[in-house]
Specification:
Keywords: Membrane, Transmembrane, Transmembrane helix. The protein is built from 2 helices and no strands. By secondary structure, the protein is mainly alpha-helical. The longest helix is centred in the C-terminal third of the chain and has 35 residues. It is rod-shaped and about 55 Å long.
Length: about 70
Amino acid sequence: MEWLIWLGALVSLTGLAGLVWCIVKVWKARKAGLDDDTLREEIRKVVPLNTGALFLSVLGLMLVVVGILLG
């Protein structure tokens, strides 16, 4: 089940990269000095991507745990 562990690690790292991308995107929007409504709209656009990246990261960690338990 070693392949399941590596697959889970890859999926988890992809999710982590997505989370970092979301953080950078919101950070740049805050530093741009946008007004309140525009900043809220930018954050609304990032929230679904952030949730998806978090889900992907959790799914990858679950694959790693299952791979360890089965191996």
